[in-house]
Amino acid sequence: MRASDDWIEVLYKVVGEGLNLLARKLPGELIEILGPIGQPFRPSLARPNCLMIGGGVGIPPMVFLADRLHADASTWNPLAVFGSETPFPFTLKKSSLPTPWLDDNISSAMPLLESWGIPSRLTSLSNFEGCMNGYVTDLADRWLASLADNELAATEIFACGPKPMLKAVAELASGYGLPCQVSLEEFMACAVGGCAGCTVLVEAPDGPAMKRVCVDGPVFDAATVIW
After folding, report:
1. Residue-level pLDDT at 35
2. DSSP-assigned beta bridge partners for residue 180
3. Regarding predicted confidence, which is higher, 131 or 73?
């Protein structure tokens, strides 16, 4: 959703009775929503090389971030790295966008990002066609290792996915001395910060503190999260 729009787009997967009921809603029916809440990804103009890493259900937030960057294509230089052990929620497409840092056989991409001119590459341990056999951090590491010092200085990492993946991404970012923003996932009861049921432990200026994913996050500086 952009400030000038009068609509929002919600991407969800039917898991459980609540989402099943939502999926059965018909055009014209009314539902109540609360939002926006929480803290978003915040790309910095000082680091226009945006490495977006998504794993499984963490792929959609990266697509929304890519949409934001795509709207100002002259400013940003994004790259998407996605991983999944179940079939990707889109038809794999052989990319026509060059990635000289990769073998030619690693060529599958997300069609939507391809149409936006944003390079994307995919990884999995499930032997999907055109995907790298490995983890998203393996694929991201290949790209980062190919960059010159001045290119690394203009790079920032954004990630969303399962917690073990985010921990590995945080370690990768630390190894290269790069800033990294991660979107965390926790069960939320109230989603307005009242119940404190979705807290995570982070390093704060005054020492370790519990922060609420729903309002203080979901996006945090990866270097502050106590994994």
Report:
1. 80
2. 157
3. 131
Tell me how far apart the alpha carbons of residues 85 and 35 are, in angstroms, rounded to a whole number: 31
Q: What is the mean pLDDT of residues 28-34?
A: 88
- With H, G, I as helix, E, B as strand and everything else as coil, classify residue 213: coil
Q: What mean pLDDT do residues 90-109 have? A: 93
Q: Which of helix, strand or coil describes residue 68?
A: helix
pTM over the 0.85 mark: yes
For residue 73, CA distances in Å to 23, 126, 227 come to: 34, 33, 34
The torsion defined by the Cα of 213, 153, 149 and 184, in degrees rounded to 10, comes to 10
Q: Could you tell me if 66 and 155 are in contact, meaning their C-beta atoms sit under 8 angstroms apart? A: no
Phi/psi zone of residue 161: left (φ > 0), alpha (ψ -120 to 50 degrees), beta?
A: left
Consecutive H or E run containing 59? helix 59-70
CA distances from 150 to 5, 46, 153, 172, 181 (A): 37, 12, 5, 18, 20
- 136-145 helix and 163-176 helix, angle to the nearest 10 degrees: 10
> Look-up: residue for tokens 């996915």?
161
Do 176 and 49 contact (CB within 8 A), yes or no?
no
For the chain, which domains are there? 17-224 (3.40.50.80)
The arithmetic mean of pLDDT across residues 100-127, rounded, is: 95
